[in-house]
Amino acid sequence: MTVLQGIIFDVDGTLADTEEIHRQAFNRAFSEFDCDWQWSCDEYRGLLAVSGGRERIRQYLEQRGVPGGGARLSELAADMHRRKSALYRELLAGTGIRLRPGVARLMREAGARGVRLGVATSSSRSNFETLLRATLGNGSIDAFHTVVTCDVVEEKKPSPAVYQRAVSGLGASPSHCVAIEDTRNGNLAALAAGLKTVITTHSFTLDNDFSGAALIVDRLGEPDQPMQVLAGNSGGAPCVDVSLLERIVAGTARADTATRQPASAAPAK
Ligand code: XBP
């Protein structure tokens, strides 16, 4: 049995820096619904503690004291999120967005080494397909052996459900899989499903608590664009490659869990 059987990618913030585009789409939707609020970058950083855009809106409506009972607020959140998602896909298609450094390289390496690729996201398949078309082109979804989205699994991270479904879809054992994530909820979800985790940080989640992760880096990196290791042990590797992930799964990368303290003293809520 090969040591590394699968690599499961989160989508937003991991495959590509999409959260800023999501934030803009949320704000455009709020304007269309004549709301008197907009989410700043700082505010959105805190709101990302809630996985799932619809759930994020729903909690925000309640916190703002928007009038209406539970069912009415849920219906309003769903209507806003449907419009936001359409705006997100329109924005995404026009931004010239690229995959984060090292993502395409790791996908190619994994394919060449017979390591199956999966996706586990709180977002929708339509959003994922739009991102893939914009970055890797049509047909690129075939590179993934399994794609698990909120259309398939309703429970959002930090529930392990989306990762459990993805590992099953790979026909793999969780202990032989690595999740690539960017948020505290994603890290918790993958760990609870029995995977090792590698975190690639970005401005919206740098201060998250990633306790339990095997490695925290600023990007997956390229040989000529080396990653910065923020916590954990890469064994001196310049980038996250299949060999490093094999060492992490085998436990020979001294996967002493990354203990970097979050940038802010208090862990994410
Ligand atoms: C990230 C999320 C999503 C996005 C917004 O998903 O939590 O909610 O922020 O997308 P993941 P939606 O990190 O699991 O890819 O509005 O479609 O939820």
Word description of this protein:
The chain has nine helices and seven strands. The termini are far apart. Strands 3-2-1-4-5-6-7 form a seven-stranded mixed sheet. The protein is 39% helix and 11% strand. α3 (53-63) packs across α4 (70-93). It is globular, with a radius of gyration of 18 Å. It has 269 residues and is α/β, with parallel strands linked by helices. Xylulose-1,5-bisphosphate is lined by residues 10-13, 19, 22, 51-53, 85, 121-124, 127, 157, 183, 186.
Features:
about 40% helix, about 10% strand, about 270 residues, 9 helices, alpha/beta
Summarize the structure.
With 269 residues, this protein is of the alpha/beta class. The chain has helices spanning 19-32, 41-47, 53-63, 70-93, 103-112, 125-135, 161-170, 184-192, 242-250, and strands spanning 6-9, 116-120, 146-148, 177-181, 196-200, 215-217, 229-232.
CA gyration radius, whole angstroms: 18 Å
Shape: globular
Given helix and strand content, the structural type is alpha/beta
Number of helices: 9
- What are the low-pLDDT stretches, counting only 5+ consecutive residues below 50? 264-269
**In what range is the share of β-strand residues?**
5-15%
Characterize the biggest β-sheet. Answer: 7 strands, mixed
How many β-strands, per DSSP?
7
| Subunit organisation of the chains | single chain
Q: Which small-molecule species are bound to the chains here?
A: xylulose-1,5-bisphosphate
